[in-house]
Amino acid sequence: MEKKGRTSMAFSLHGIHVPHRKNTANMVAVRMNTPATVTIPMVMHIGKPATPVVKVGDHVDVGTLIAEQNGYISSPIYASVSGKVTKIADTLLSNGSMVPAITIESDGAMTSAALEIPKVDNREDLIAAIKASGIVGLGGAGFPTYVKFDVDPERIEELIINGAECEPYITSDTRTMIDNAYDIDFAIKAFKKHLGIKKIIIAIENNKKEAIAAMRDIAIDDGDISVVPLKAVYPQGGEKVMIYHTTGKVVPGGKLPIDVGCIVCNCSTMAAIGRYLATGMPLVERTVTVDGSAVASPKNVVAPIGTSLADVFEFAGGFSSEPGKVLYGGPMMGIAVPSLDVPILKNTNAVLAFNKKDSKPRKMTPCIRCGACTNTCPFGLNPALILDAYENENMEMLAKLRVDLCMECGCCAYGCPANRPIMQNHKLAKAALREYLAKEENSK
Amino acid sequence: MNNSLLNITASPHIHSHHSTRNVMLDVILALLPTTVAGVIIFGMRALLVVAVCVFTAIASEFVFNLAVKKQQTIDDLSAIVTGLLLALNLPANIPIWQAVVGSVFAIVVVKCFFGGIGKNIVNPAITARVFMLIAFGSMAKAAFPVDSVASATPLAEAAETGAISTSLWDLFIGNHGGTIGETCTLALILGGIYLLLRRVIQWHLPVAFIGTAYIFTLILVDFDFVAALSFILSGGLFIGAIYMATDYVTSPATSWGQLLFGAGCGIFAVIIRHFGQYPEGVSFAILLMNILTPYIDIWTARKPFGGKKA
Hints:
Oligomer: heterodimer
Distance between the termini of chain A: 54 Å
CATH class of the domain at 123-279 in chain A: Alpha Beta
CATH topology of chain B: Ammonium transporter fold
Number of helices of chain A: 14
Largest interface: A-B, 69 and 42 residues
Strand order of the largest sheet of chain A: 1-14-13-17-15-16
CATH architecture of chain B: Orthogonal Bundle
CATH topology of the domain at 123-279 in chain A: Rossmann fold
Shape of chain A: globular
Number of strands of chain B: 0
CATH architecture of the domain at 123-279 in chain A: 3-Layer(aba) Sandwich
Distance between the termini of chain B: 52 Å
Shape of chain B: globular
């Protein structure tokens, strides 16, 4: 029954071979010592900021609600340590926006709030439970998970559990699949029972043998679950890439996976759902891979949400050399952060620190039209032409070249011998095109 | 530690470490066996021509950039590649002043006037060779191996008599008349394999070029397999297909485009060889296809995934 979910594809999408550098793949995540303070921003998800419900001076326990959901696409936030709320003030996010954040001074006790195991008897209960858990896409996107599942269950043909983890360095998903397989299984059973999902595909890159074995163990007595090993080619974990490679379905530009009958859910997100359903403990901590050339002893760390990166790096033995660049997430799509004071967020699957040498910007030279960018683009776009069109502010051309389809995987920039700022300009071009199209729409 | 400045850049944060300079260095390394073979076959005069062309190419780019106040680009090594390729496409006995004029033409007129590396629409070395072929009569008088008694290149002989008398082995190791770099097929193939292994080039273009030329020649010589093989081992087909046509700037980007480009080159080269005024047509064929490249790029552009209207 194992390969049941696999459809043979005439062509695989293009991609690139990135170095794996999965140095921490064999390291079971270690719980870090409780940080003295945590700072929890009200935006750790896609959507509206959560609304604080505590005041400075309030005592909170692990799992106490500190901010409630605000609107449909939003997510509640819970205290990750026990202690006292000392500050509620604006903080700078890595995307440049200022949002309120709640600072809690830990009392070191990590006492748990009074928790109730959620009572789930039907579909509505399950959706409400995921909503209340504060769980968002833990693979990096941070989209409120309950929204994905809040659709007519008839529309769901396949639930694809994403265990590709195609970014270099990161192993937090791999460790979760190996060490928390039971939680994933628990969540799958709940979805099958209450949403009636018939087909569950667990997709993992074939360089993660141990994780594949662990997932096969939970699939062994269930014909509805198939474990699909995928080639270890970046960006295998991209949502549309994964849907195509596991089902053969193409998600059209501007549409969601559910429009072709698929829901893609990261494996760590599934594990978090399983844990919440079993224990009632909302999302207050997560597994983070700490690695990079400037880190003394790379490891997987279970960190309370809101812990500063400085504390996390210190737990990983500090720096072996002065860091020149620090990232949220992997080196292909991760976000460079301005300082070590920024906190671990719900969707922070890794924090990487690179030494000065690895952080140096590379020298840009003229495009030699080698075609590496267009030949490696998984979506068949032509980055060199997009770059030209953007520089010439040719919006019609940008629309024609379908820059809107770009998922920002970075394959084009990774292989460019001229070090053109392709990815950076694609992001700008996408925004410029959106603005232009909106203006066109208005003037009609 | 928190006070140290962190570098903020857009993703991706790692790179394949490919660079234009490394690509050019690989091409130079790949051409070394051919250059050595040329010197062994044609003597030290060949080395002089190579040295003059390479030096002139670098110097012209340097002086041009200086004159128009552009940032220096000679460190990308592309001028060396152009000079080297041009030299390998010249007979060893060419007057030195002509080699100098050709190199200046390749770099200044074909490359720099169009905006430098990446902006030229035709291959500098090929275009300079064609220019010299038309401008200087001496280009037609090919050089011959030092101890040779032959009086015509295999293709010139074929144009006269309709057949090539040089043995396949001599054609393969390069023991016959021609330009410095075109005769030793063995060395050209060795360098080509190196470029394939280093992933500097893809197999599509050279294979389509040589394959099409072979099949087309085969038809024209009434399926005489040995005669057709003699034809494709003669002249500049291998150096053209492996090193000149594959120039990134002037050839299509996608695999399909490269197959089309190679096939077009093969057909034009054979047409010119068999029906044209000149005994050799490889340079003209590549030049023609260079001009068609923007169109081939449009015809063979990849279809955006999920680009259809839902």
